[in-house]
Design a protein that fits this description.
Blueprint: H1 12-25, E1 34-35, H2 37-44, H3 48-60, E2 64-67, E3 71-74, H4 79-92
Antiparallel strand pairs: 1-3, 2-3
Helix pairs in contact: 1-3, 2-3
Length: about 90
């Protein structure tokens, strides 16, 4: 997993969200990959709560599917999501 620096004033849950989403988009976390909440929290140096909050936000966006007591599974990324993401990035840059 590719780690990014934590931004100034970035909350732990925002950092976890940004890290996981970035790794999903860059296919560091491949579709079908199982993500463990505990392992991810250790890797990011965070408690489980911010990781759990990030998981909930990513699930609402359709990037992952939560599995009870198993963590989360990365969903297949559709073309519309990729197109929307890059259009937003172009607008921001």
């Amino acid at each position: 997993m590719r780690l990014l620096k934590r931004l100034p004033r970035e909350t732990a849950s925002d950092y976890a969200y940004r890290m996981i989403k970035d790794n999903i988009i860059r296919l560091e976390l491949e579709p079908g990959c199982l993500i463990s909440e505990n392992e991810l929290a250790v890797e990011l140096g965070l408690s489980r709560t911010p990781v759990r909050e990030a998981f909930q936000q990513l699930e609402s966006e359709g990037l992952i599917t939560l599995r009870m007591n198993k963590g989360a599974i990365v969903n297949t990324i559709d073309r519309k999501f990729i197109t929307d993401h890059y259009e937003m990035r172009i607008l921001l840059e």
